C-alpha cells in the first residue's frame, strides 16, 4: 500500500528522504535552533536525543510547518521544501504522534481519523458507512481491540496513540515523528508499540523517534542524533556508541555515576502503614518509612503502588487498616488532613495533578500553603514571589522569569516546581510517584540530588518507581508489590534487577503467577 503510493510521487532519487541543513530558528533574540543538521534514510528508525531544552520540540515544529526557519534548508527526497502549516506538512507525507495525544475526546475514533478529510457521498453528505469501514481497515493491523465507533476518551493512552498513527497512515504519511511515545505506557504496551513501529519501518515508513529512554533507542533505532543547547552535536550508529559516551554528548559533561552518593543518616520510624486494604485495589499492605530514608515502592504496572499512595495521601480511603505518624494513629480523611499532618504527594502526572499552567510559577509554588501569605486579610504577592525565589534557588530551578507559566519550562524544571510547592509546607513525609517520569538523563540526576538532600534534611521519602535501575540506585529499602499485595520488603544490599523481577512475578506466599 505504502510503496505504490510513494512511487507515484515522482520525486528525484536521494539517499535520504529528509535532510535538514544548518537550520536556524530564533524567538526574540533567543536561539531555539542554532544551525542543526539531520538526515533520515528511507525505511529507517532514527533516534533523536537530548536534554529537555535541547531544541527537539522546535525541530519537530519546523518539520511539521508550525514554525518556519530563519535560515537553512529542509530537503524532502533531495528537493527543497518549506512547509508553512501542519496541513502543508501532511500533504508532503509528514505526521507527528505526540506524547500527550491532541485528539477530540468526545468524538469517535472514526471521526478523529477523518477529521478534515471526511468522505462524502454524491449528495454531499458524510458517508459514515464507508468512513467506518476504512477506519477499521486502518486500525485492525495496529490493534484488534479498538472499536471505531467508541469515543476517544474511552481508550487508553496507548490505544489513542494507535489511532493517531492510523490517522497519519490515512494521509499516506511516509515520515512519522514519534515524540516520547512510550512515556505513559506499560511494559507490555511498549512492546506492542515497538512491533508496530518495526512493521511500519518494514513497509517503508521512515520514523524519527524522540525519546529519553535508552530502551526505546536500543530496541528500535539504527542511528542516533544528539542535540545539546539548541545545537547539533553529532550522529552515531547505535551499536557503536556506549551509554557513557551518549550521556556525555547529551549533557556536555561526564556523569561519573548515574546516581549521587547518599549522605543521609537514617533515624526512627516516621510513618507506618498497618494492614490496609481497599476492595479491588490492594489487600493487607504493611510497611514503614524512617527519617532520612528513601523507601522504594516498585512492581509491575497494575501492582497497586499508585493506589496505595493515594490512600496514604487521603485521595482514597482504605476499607480497613490504619496509619501511624510519629507513633500516633492518624485518620487521613482527605489531602488537606494529610498536608496539615506533614504528608505531601508529588503525583505521577505533573501536568494534570501537580501544576496549574494558567498561573505563574510563583503562584504554583505558593498554592500549597496560601494561608502563609495572607497578611491583614490580603494576599501578599511580594511574600509569594520572595518565597518562590528562595525555594526555586534551593532546588536550582532554571527559569528566566518566576512570573512565567510552568508550561514555559522543560519537563525536569516543571517537576522541580512541584518539589518547590511541597517544600512550601512543613512536611515530614514525601510521597514521590514516578518522580523522574518523562525527563531527560541530566534532569534526572538533578532530581536525585534534590531527593538525597531532602533525605539528609530528615524527610522520610516514599518513592514509587517502575524503573529498576532507579530503584537500585536510590532506595535504602525496597517494597515489591504484586497484584495488590506486598511480595517482599528488602534492604537494598546486593539486590539485582532479576531479584526484583522475580518477586514482582510471584504472589506474597511465594507461588509463581
Topology:
Elements: H1 2-7, E1 16-27, E2 30-41, E3 45-49, H2 56-63, E4 71-76, E5 79-80, H3 86-91, E6 94-97, H4 109-113, H5 128-139, H6 157-170, E7 175-179, H7 187-202, E8 206-210, H8 214-220, E9 223-228, E10 231-237, H9 243-251, E11 269-278, E12 282-290, E13 294-299, H10 305-312, E14 320-325, E15 328-330, H11 335-341, E16 343-346, H12 350-354, H13 361-366, E17 374-375, E18 378-379, H14 381-394, H15 411-423, E19 429-433, H16 441-456, E20 460-464, H17 468-474, E21 477-482, E22 485-491, H18 497-504
Parallel strand pairs: 3-8, 3-9, 6-7, 7-8, 13-20, 13-21, 16-19, 19-20
Antiparallel strand pairs: 1-2, 1-4, 4-5, 9-10, 11-12, 11-14, 14-15, 17-18, 21-22
Helix pairs in contact: 14-15, 15-16
Structure in words:
- The protein is built from 18 helices and 22 strands.
- The protein has 513 residues and is of the alpha/beta class.
- The strands form five sheets. A six-stranded mixed β-sheet has the order 6-7-8-3-9-10, sandwiched between helices.
- Helix 15 (411-423) packs parallel to helix 16 (441-456).
- The protein is globular.
- The protein starts with a helix and ends in a 9-residue tail after the last helix.
- The model is unreliable at 1-11 and 507-513 (pLDDT under 50).
So what's the oligomer here?
A: single chain
Largest sheet: 6 strands, mixed
Poorly predicted spans: 1-11, 507-513
Mean pLDDT equals: 87
Overall radius of gyration: 25 Å
How many strands in all? 22
- What form results from the Cα inertia axes? globular
Task: Please count the helical segments.
Answer: 18
Proportion of strand residues = 25-35%
Alpha carbon gap, first and last residue: 42 Å
Fraction of residues in helix? 25-40%
The strands making up the biggest β-sheet line up spatially as 6-7-8-3-9-10
Structural class: alpha/beta
Amino acid at each position: 500500500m505504502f510503496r505504490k503510493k510513494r512511487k507515484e510521487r515522482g520525486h528525484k532519487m536521494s539517499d535520504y528522504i529528509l535532510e535538514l541543513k544548518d537550520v536556524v530558528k530564533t524567538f526574540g533574540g533567543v536561539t531555539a535552533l542554532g544551525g542543526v543538521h539531520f538526515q533520515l534514510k528511507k525505511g529507517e528508525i532514527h533516534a533523536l536525543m537530548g536534554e529537555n531544552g535541547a531544541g527537539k520540540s522546535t525541530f519537530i515544529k519546523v518539520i511539521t510547518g508550525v514554525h518556519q526557519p530563519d535560515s537553512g534548508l529542509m530537503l524532502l527526497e533531495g528537493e527543497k521544501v518549506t512547509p508553512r502549516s501542519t496541513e502543508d506538512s501532511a500533504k508532503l507525507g509528514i505526521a507527528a504522534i505526540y506524547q500527550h495525544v491532541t485528539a477530540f475526546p468526545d468524538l469517535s475514533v472514526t471521526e478523529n481519523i477523518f477529521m478534515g478529510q471526511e468522505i462524502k457521498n454524491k449528495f454531499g453528505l458524510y458517508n459514515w458507512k464507508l468512513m467506518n469501514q476504512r477506519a477499521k481497515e486502518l486500525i485492525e493491523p495496529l490493534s484488534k481491540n479498538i472499536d471505531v465507533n467508541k469515543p476517544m476518551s474511552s481508550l487508553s493512552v496507548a490505544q489513542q496513540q494507535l489511532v493517531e498513527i492510523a490517522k497519519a497512515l490515512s494521509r499516506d504519511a511516509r515520515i512519522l515523528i514519534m515524540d516520547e511515545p512510550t512515556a505513559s505506557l506499560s511494559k507490555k504496551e511498549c512492546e506492542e508499540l515497538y512491533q508496530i513501529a518495526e512493521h511500519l519501518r518494514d513497509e517503508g515508513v521512515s520514523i524519527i523517534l524522540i525519546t529519553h529512554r535508552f530502551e526505546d533507542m536500543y530496541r528500535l533505532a539504527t542511528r542516533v542524533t544528539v542535540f545539546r543547547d539548541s545545537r547539533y552535536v553529532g550522529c552515531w550508529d547505535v551499536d557503536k556508541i556506549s551509554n557513557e559516551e551518549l550521556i556525555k554528548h547529551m549533557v556536555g559533561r561526564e556523569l561519573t555515576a548515574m546516581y549521587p552518593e547518599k549522605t543521609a543518616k537514617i533515624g526512627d520510624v516516621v510513618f507506618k502503614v498497618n494492614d490496609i486494604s481497599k476492595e479491588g485495589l490492594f489487600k493487607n499492605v504493611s510497611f514503614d518509612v524512617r527519617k532520612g530514608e528513601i523507601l522504594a515502592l516498585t512492581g509491575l504496572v497494575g501492582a497497586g503502588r499508585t493506589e496505595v499512595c493515594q490512600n496514604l495521601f487521603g485521595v482514597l480511603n482504605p476499607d480497613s487498616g490504619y496509619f501511624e505518624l510519629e507513633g500516633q494513629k492518624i485518620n487521613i480523611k482527605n489531602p488537606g488532613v494529610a498536608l496539615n499532618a506533614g504528608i505531601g504527594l508529588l503525583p505521577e502526572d505533573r501536568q494534570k495533578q501537580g501544576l496549574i499552567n494558567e498561573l505563574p510559577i510563583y503562584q504554583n509554588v505558593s498554592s500549597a500553603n496560601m494561608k502563609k501569605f495572607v497578611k491583614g486579610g490580603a494576599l501578599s504577592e511580594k511574600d509569594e514571589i520572595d518565597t518562590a525565589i528562595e525555594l526555586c534557588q534551593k532546588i536550582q530551578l532554571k527559569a528566566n522569569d518566576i512570573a512565567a507559566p510552568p508550561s514555559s519550562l522543560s519537563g525536569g524544571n516543571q517537576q522541580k516546581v512541584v518539589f518547590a510547592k511541597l517544600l512550601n509546607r512543613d512536611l515530614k513525609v514525601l510521597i514521590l510517584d514516578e518522580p523522574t517520569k518523562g525527563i531527560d538523563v541530566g534532569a534526572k540526576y538533578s532530581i536525585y540530588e534534590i531527593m538525597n538532600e531532602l533525605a539528609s534534611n530528615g524527610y522520610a521519602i516514599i518513592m514509587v518507581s517502575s524503573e529498576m535501575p532507579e530503584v537500585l540506585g536510590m532506595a535504602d529499602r525496597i517494597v515489591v508489590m504484586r497484584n495488590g499485595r506486598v511480595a517482599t520488603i528488602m534492604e537494598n544490599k546486593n539486590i539485582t534487577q532479576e531479584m526484583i523481577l522475580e518477586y514482582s512475578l510471584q504472589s506474597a506466599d511465594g507461588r509463581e503467577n
